[in-house]
Amino acid sequence: MLSTRHRITAVATLALAAGLPLLGHGLISDNTARTTGGVCLTSCALVLIALLAIRSWITDTTQERSILYDSICSAETEKERYQAAKYALDAERDRMRRDAINAERRAAQALAAERDALRDQFEEERNQLICQTFETAFRLARAGIAEAPATPRVIPFPSQHHPAEGETTRGRGVTRP
Predict the structure, then answer these.
(1) Has residue 166 been placed in a domain?
(2) Residue 14 lies in a domain
(3) Domain membership of residue 27 as a residue range
(4) CA–CA gap between residue 23 and residue 25 (Å, rounded)
(5) Cα 134 from Cα 137, distance rounded (Å)
(6) 23 CB-side CA count, 13 A
(7) What is the DSSP string of the chain?
(8) What per-residue confidence (pLDDT) applies to 162?
(9) pLDDT digits (tens, 9 = 90+) for 105-116
(10) Is residue 158 part of a domain?
(11) How far apart are CA 81 and CA 37, in angstroms?
(12) Residue 25 falls inside a structural domain
């Protein structure tokens, strides 16, 4: 099936093919009617061809379509590159987060080990100081330099007083059973 453009081109070609001989025959035979008819057919054919050319110039979008296609392709490429960069950034962020968590765990373990080592060292030094203190006190006592206290200081407990029958314990009218 022929498109509209091809049909109009065929009609214009037929009109031109009929108009030029008619124009030529009218000029040769000095016939004004045939010359006028040939000029009209030829003019109509040329106008149709000119209109088709103008229409094709106006509606021909192949160059714009190719530019659009190139733009779409470059936009798709840029989008893919952006997504790849985004995925790489997300992966790097996740790796850094995991590394930070692992470093924090290692630091906590090292801190706990160091704290335990310092506690052990403190206990050992404390025990050594206690031992040295006892040795020094023993030597001083043996040498007679240090005296033991004569009587120990004792804080006496208050005497336990039980109230008599009917006497209140708190002064509020409550008696003991």
Answers:
(1) no
(2) yes
(3) 1-60
(4) 6
(5) 5
(6) 12
(7) ---HHHHHHHHHHHHHHHHHHHHHHHHHTT-HHHHHHHHHHHHHHHHHHHHHHHHHHHH--HHHHHHHHHHHHHHHHHHHHHHHHHHHHHHHHHHHHHHHHHHHHHHHHHHHHHHHHHHHHHHHHHHHHHHHHHHHHHHHHHHT-S---SS---PPPPP--PPPTT-BSSSSS-B--
(8) 58
(9) 999 999 999 999
(10) no
(11) 67
(12) yes
Give the model confidence (pLDDT) of 124-167 as tens digits.
999 999 999 988 888 888 887 755 555 656 666 677 655 555 55
**Cβ atoms of residues 21 and 38 within 8 Å:** yes
Which two tokens mark 110?
């090292």
**pTM of the predicted protein model:** 0.40
**Mean pLDDT throughout 92-115?**
96
How far apart are the C-alpha atoms of 175 and 167, rounded to whole Å?
A: 6
Residue 58, pLDDT score: 87
Query: Backbone phi, then psi, for 168, in 5-degree steps?
Result: -85, 150
How far is it, in rounded angstroms, from Cα 106 to Cα 112? 10
Number of domains in the chain: 1
Name every residue whose Cβ is closer than 8 Å to that of residue 26 and which is 6 or more positions away in sequence: 32, 33, 34, 35, 36, 37, 38
